[in-house]
Design brief:
The protein has about 375 residues and is α/β, with parallel strands linked by helices. It has a single domain, classed as Alpha/Beta hydrolase fold, catalytic domain (Rossmann fold). Helix content is about 40%, strand content about 20%. The protein has eleven helices and eleven strands. Strands 1, 2, 3, 4, 5, 6, 7, 8, 9, 10 and 11 form an eleven-stranded mixed β-sheet that branches. The relative contact order is 0.15.
């Protein structure tokens, strides 16, 4: 099955879909048992503390900050900040299902993720965003994508019954590390009696394990592209802000990195866990009816795109789209404010109109909007 490329007109032959619309049987039947170290890991306690008065966005949405302390079955205490975004139903049509997401590597509460959260709540999405451990959490060397996904489920379980939106039928979101976490979040959902209605992931990495030399060679080829890309994206955020008369665009994006020494240590400790994440086997444990869009970047070797395409073969409701650029392109203003916004807007309309959440239709509508936008701006 071919990958749809973002710059080409959308074609039904270039997406994955269920042949003839047939109902898939045994949607929860995996090819193998989930490893015991994944099933046995549980969150045994959760404490949540409000941090400050909520931020109010331009649409009147409220964004709350909480500090969550998780106590797990390994005897560890993990402290993670959570951002909870509540749309203003008086000004925007509110989507009844929460978006669950987490951070890309080296990012945190401010900057890129804050931009995304504000964008979602202003579109009408409730948001539960669980940030990664920073300087307030004990240092732990044994980082794990799977445990991070389990902590997200524990937070949603704790919120159940206390919100006006659903935390049991959710939309999964994530970029890079967040996308990898999202793939495992979907695989664990049934254990928490949760359904992931749809998912949009950008550039999940390291689908399968690689040898030491392969990992080093991949990183050696990829890192120069990312370093060059960071400078380019900073300039583009500045130009984006100037074009729209918004001088806060670059300063806001510049807050993405938390340079506290302990936070840097936490993220350095994540490197090994990410490289060894081996996300692929968990995709086999996702329901066969899983629906979503997977955005990859063609110059990103870390994403092992061809391997992910093979892994999604048993999930015909997943659409793969290829975009130009390296891994870091997912943080560009063009991607944030055009591609990402178009896909979530299309998804939101489908939910509010009670339509079937068909990934190919949602992706096609987003593509049509982007092409019209391109014509207007040309």
């Amino acid at each position: 099955m071919a990958i749809h490329r973002h710059e080409q007109p959308f074609s039904e032959e270039m997406v994955w879909r269920n042949n003839g619309g047939a109902v898939l049987l045994d949607e929860y039947l995996p090819k193998s048992e989930m490893p015991s170290h994944i099933s046995d890991y549980q969150i045994q306690g959760l404490e949540r503390v409000s941090l400050k008065e909520p931020e109010v966005t331009n649409t009147g949405a409220h964004i709350y900050q909480e500090l969550c302390t998780f106590y797990d079955s390994n005897g560890h205490k993990i402290v993670r900040e959570a951002t909870i975004g509540i749309p203003n139903s008086n000004l925007v049509e509110t989507i009844p299902n929460a978006v669950a997401s987490s951070d890309p590597w080296t990012t945190g509460v401010r900057g890129l993720n804050h931009i995304k959260i504000k964008g979602l709540v202003d579109m009408g999405y409730p948001v539960i965003w669980l940030h990664h451990a920073d300087e307030r959490s004990p240092l732990q060397r044994n980082k794990s994508i799977t445990r991070s996904a389990r902590q997200m489920h524990a937070l949603l379980d704790d919120l159940d019954g206390s919100t006006d939106f659903s935390v049991n039928e959710v939309i999964a979101d994530g970029y890079s590390r967040g996308g990898m976490t999202g793939e495992k979040f979907i695989a664990l959902a049934r254990q928490h009696r949760r359904k992931v209605l749809f998912s949009i992931f950008d550039a999940p990495c390291f689908a399968t394990d690689m040898s030491g030399p392969e990992k080093r060679a991949t990183l050696a080829r990829q890192l120069p592209k990312e370093l060059i890309g960071i400078g380019s994206i900073a300039v583009r955020h500045l130009l984006h802000g100037l074009k729209r008369g918004d001088l806060t665009s670059l300063p806001e994006f510049a807050k993405t990195l938390n340079l506290h020494p302990k936070n840097i240590a936490q993220e350095v400790m994540w490197a090994t866990a990410l490289i060894n994440a081996n996300v692929g086997p968990m995709i086999d444990h996702q329901p066969k009816s899983t629906k979503g869009i997977r955005n990859f970047f063609e110059s990103d070797e870390m994403s092992q795109i061809a391997t992910y395409v093979d892994l999604y073969a048993s999930h015909p409701g997943v659409v793969v789209i290829a975009h130009e650029g390296p891994h870091i392109e997912g943080a560009s203003p063009q991607y944030l404010y055009e591609v990402r916004e178009a896909q979530f807007s299309s998804l939101g309309r489908a939910i509010l109109n009670g339509l079937e959440l068909d990934a190919s239709s949602i992706a096609q509508e987003a593509e049509l909007y982007l092409r019209s936008l391109s014509l207007v701006n040309s």
